[in-house]
Amino acid sequence: MPPRRRPRVPGSRSTPAGEHVPILLDEILSVLAPLESAIVVDCTVGFGGHAQRLLQQLGPRGQLFGFDLDGTYLETVQRRLAAVGTPFRLVQTNFAAIVPVLAEAGVPQVDAILADLGMSSMQVDDPQRGFSSRRDGPLDMRMDRSRGRTAAEVLRDLSRDELAQAFREWGDEPQAERIAQAIVQQRRVRPLQRTSELTQLILRAAPVQEVQNHPGALPFRRQKWLPVTRVFQALRILVNRELANLQALLRCLPQVLKPGGRVAILSFHSGEDRLVKAAFREGFHQGIYQRIAEEPIRPTEAEKLANPRSRSAKLRWAVRADATKTTTTAAAIVPSPGTPGTESKASPFS
User: Fold this and answer.
1) C-alpha to C-alpha distances, 171 to 120, 165, 227, nearest whole angstrom
2) How far apart are CA 334 and CA 281, in angstroms?
3) Rounded to whole angstroms, how far apart are CA atoms 44 and 108?
4) Which fold does the domain 127-239 belong to in CATH?
5) How far apart are CA 211 and CA 214, in angstroms?
6) How does residue 331 score in pLDDT terms, banded at 50, 70 and 90?
7) Mean pLDDT, to the nearest integer, of 16-40?
8) How many Cβ atoms are within 10 Å of 138's Cβ, its own excluded?
9) What is the pLDDT of residue 13?
10) Given the DSSP bridges, would you call strands 39-42 and 63-67 parallel, antiparallel or unpaired?
11) Which tens digits make up the pLDDT trace of 135-166?
12) Is residue 330 pLDDT above 80, yes or no?
């Protein structure tokens, strides 16, 4: 039986402290439908919510590989998953390294792959990580805190045009230029170091005019925070090279999926979703995938109410074709960000 979810307190904005609620869990299990002997890869194991349920579907002849660039919680997840009793292996690595990791383990191909591209609630709620605009902390945002530039260093080093392009393309922020200009002006005095400093700068630089009498309009207290949310999202994607890593994974999928193998990718940003949609569509047209989602699977209203962080989630899936039908190289199916594509349909596998 899956663990029961705590009821959400009305007006609360996040998951209860110390918890992470996996999104679209039942839908992902239905899409991947692993057999008891399946080999499954969870590309973003996080706090182990999806991985735990996947392990429960596998038998003693099955196996799960769990990847995560952030090693903070891997020891805790190790203990959680060990209680299930099914073989598994956790690796701190970027999912773009899926091919060499599986090759080292002597596993050339797998039956199912899951990639949840969202943030763990544990990461968001830790102020020292710098992911949340509502919690004061250092502007870090690195998934792997042992390497790479922090968000503060990115804001210090990039030009105004580079910052504006990132906010516009990866945050869908209409006031990207104004915010980028404000950051450049501020760093001439003192570079930004804290999440609260960046938050207040964005609120000053990009005031929002209240939208009223519009179907689905958010309360104004949430409307005014939209530029902040978009910039933080874009900055996190930039710091961690998330779209480049996603492109690398999409290129690898045809190589590591068995014929008939299934992949499910859960995205939370339009740029991510466009990449996944276009790659699956192109792979279908070229015979690499025998079936793909026609529309994304979205959370129900009940799930969005219980877990507000699921609101923007989109789940897309694909089924690998027989090897004899594949004549095109995998690299050809991965488009650049922004490539238009058709919407997909949440239909169950036949």
Assistant:
1) 19, 9, 8
2) 10
3) 20
4) DNA polymerase; domain 1 (1.10.150)
5) 7
6) very low
7) 87
8) 15
9) 46
10) parallel
11) 999 999 999 888 899 999 999 999 999 999 99
12) no
| pLDDT over threshold 60, residue 16 | no
- Check whether domain 25-121+243-333 has CATH 3.40.50.150, yes or no: yes
Distance CA 289, CA 258 (A): 11
Count helices and strands (H / E) in the chain: 14, 7
Rg (CA), the chain: 20
245-259 burial: b if 16+ Cβ within 10 Å, else e = bbbbbbbbbbebbee
Question: Token digits for 141?
Answer: 């945002």
Residues with Cβ within 8 Å of 227's Cβ and at least 6 positions away in sequence, in order, are 173, 175, 179, 202, 203, 206, 208
Domain ranges (residues) in the chain: 25-121+243-333, 127-239
Report the distance separating Cα 239 and Cα 151, nearest Å.
Answer: 6
Picking from 263, 63, 93, 235, the residue whose alpha carbon sits closest to that of residue 166 is 235
pLDDT at 138: 96
Pairwise CA distance, residues 316 & 133, whole Å: 29
> In 86-236, which ranges are E strands?
88-91, 110-116
User: For residue 233, what are the contacts with CB-CB under 8 A and spacing of at least 6?
Assistant: 170, 171, 269
